[in-house]
TrEMBL record:
GO molecular function per UniProt: transaminase activity
Name used for this protein in its record: Aminotransferase
Biased composition (Gly residues): 35-70
SUPFAM superfamilies xref list: PLP-dependent transferases
Family: Belongs to the class-I pyridoxal-phosphate-dependent aminotransferase family.
Domain Aminotransferase class I/classII large, first and last residues per copy: 127-454
InterPro entries listed in its UniProt record: Aminotransferase_I/II_large, AspAT/PAT-like, NHTrfase_class1_PyrdxlP-BS, PyrdxlP-dep_Trfase, PyrdxlP-dep_Trfase_major
Cofactor(s) needed: pyridoxal 5'-phosphate
Keyword line: Aminotransferase, Pyridoxal phosphate, Transferase
Domain of life: Bacteria
EC class (word): transferase
Length: 459
């Protein structure tokens, strides 16, 4: 085996024998036991493996966060499908940017992108960044965890993605293989199960209701595993879409511990953190799973609290063992997250921006109060508590007798009163036909107007 010289380190999972990938037994390529030298990953580019520094496997990953492995079942290995060569050019692009940032005069003959950028005023210039995002943004995101949650995160574990949607695809691809079983709750955000299904992962939907505040519990996970078989992962959202319910610290801890004991990956969608209506206190913005266990996978985004949906920017916090496999997939699937969005997002973590966004959340709180106050007049059935996010999810109660199901109700409401609400079927294939979701992200004036129209429509 040839030891690759030069500055670019091959990430551990990519130190392949120089035989074709198909001939290498899949598990032999996993991060463990793959430390013996390595040929050139990524199509044999001379000059060796991929740029490692700061991205693949840098530093005390997993560290900082409280955790370790309570219950200590061995971590699941990364998926077999992530055992592909990293797209080396993207890692070198990252290394070039880092060196330039550090003051080096780097001449890059590396990337396949025109250096003659369009003139400002016609098109805006922007180039690729590293596959896991720019170093300053990854550091800024790590800083956000220090500020909000009091945990130290190695920026090398932060992967910037194309929205949290991009993070789901890459995390699921990295963590799970076809046929693996992953649990999530219903009602829930439909893209989790749809992406998992598209990737050939078996979705284990756990029906929840008001008794568990529409969230999973260790008992529910236990029952699901008994019925369907071992779980490779569990996905949780707090605050959740469509119910808005949140998990307290102890409840989240119990779920994280269950996963650690059973060797399942814990994936925490924290996209609605910061949008909560809880009493002021240390956990008001939401408890991050990474506070509780260093190996939790956290997914977040600039879309909701920061309101940057169209910039398509999110991130994942990865356990150390998944960084290199994730990077291999990201560098091939996405090349890099969008550069202008990353530049803009650097402003997200200032005191001024937090203050502005907290002001927006205060507006959501006022809009939410309008709905809660109007609930008796709406006369619907059981509603979820709406602890956070900007959703009110409610059964329609007596309106079902009149309209049959929530889709018919929503259609009639749109046609009869020009008010659009979402029927619950997408979120819950079993009981969602009885419920609707109202988003109060539209703000107080829109919500007040909609409520008036709905009450008039139902009269
Ligand atoms: C719970 C949840 N997660 C993730 C997303 C995806 O957001 P984005 O891809 O814009 O980050 C949404 C969007 O509505 C959501 O409700």
């Amino acid at each position: 085996m040839v030891q690759v010289p030069g500055p670019f380190k091959t990430p551990p999972s990519l130190k392949l024998d120089p035989k074709p990938l198909a001939e290498v037994p899949a598990r032999a390529l996993s991060a463990e036991g793959a430390d013996a030298g390595g040929g050139a990953a990524g199509g044999g580019t001379a000059g060796g493996g991929a740029a490692g520094g700061g991205t693949a496997g840098g530093g005390a990953a997993g560290g900082g966060a409280a955790g370790g492995r309570p219950g200590a079942a061995p971590a699941r290995p990364a998926s077999r499908r992530s055992e592909i060569p990293v797209f080396e050019v993207m890692q070198i692009t990252d290394e070039v940017a880092r060196r330039r940032h550090a003051g080096h005069d780097v001449v890059s003959l590396c990337a396949g992108e025109p250096s003659a950028r369009p003139a400002p005023g016609t098109l805006q210039p922007a180039g690729y960044t590293g596959p896991l995002g720019t170093t300053p943004l990854r550091e800024a995101i790590a800083g956000h965890y220090r500020d909000w949650y009091g945990v130290e995160i190695d920026p090398g574990r932060v992967a910037v993605t194309t929205g949290s949607s991009g993070a789901f695809q890459l995390v699921f691809l990295t963590a799970f293989d076809q046929g693996d079983r992953v649990a999530l709750v219903s009602p829930g955000y439909p893209a989790y199960k749809n992406i998992l299904s598209a990737l050939g992962v078996e979705v284990v939907e756990i029906a929840t209701g008001p008794d568990t505040r529409y969230q999973p519990t260790p008992e529910l996970l236990e029952a699901a595993a008994r019925e369907r078989g071992d779980l490779a992962g569990v996905i949780v959202a707090s605050p959740a879409n469509p119910t808005g319910t949140m998990l307290g610290r102890a409840e989240l801890q119990a779920l994280v511990d269950w996963c650690a004991r059973h060797g399942a990956r814990f994936i925490s969608d924290e996209i609605y953190h910061g949008i909560s209506y809880a009493e002021p206190g240390p956990d008001q913005r939401g408890v991050s799973a990474v506070e509780l266990h260093g190996d939790a996978i956290v997914i977040n985004s600039f879309s909701k609290y920061w309101g940057m949906t169209g910039w398509r920017l999110g991130w994942a916090l990865l356990p150390e063992d998944l960084v290199a496999p994730f990077e291999a997939l990201a560098s091939n699937f996405a090349l890099s997250p969008p550069a202008p969005a990353q530049e803009l997002a650097m402003r997200a973590f200032s005191a001024e921006t937090y203050g502005e966004r907290d002001g927006v959340v205060a507006g959501f709180a006022r809009a939410r109060a309008l709905i809660l106050d109007a609930a008796p007049a709406l006369g619907w059935g059981t509603a979820a508590p709406s602890d956070g996010a900007f959703y009110y999810y409610s059964e329609l109660g007596p309106q079902l007798e009149r309209f049959g199901d929530s889709s018919s109700y929503a259609r009639a409401l749109l046609e009869g009163a020009d008010v659009a609400v979402v029927p619950g079927g997408d979120f819950d294939p079993v009981a969602g036909h009885r419920a609707v979701r109202l988003s109060f992200a539209a703000g107080e004036a829109a919500v007040a107007e909609a409520l008036e129209r709905i009450i008039r429509f139902q009269a």
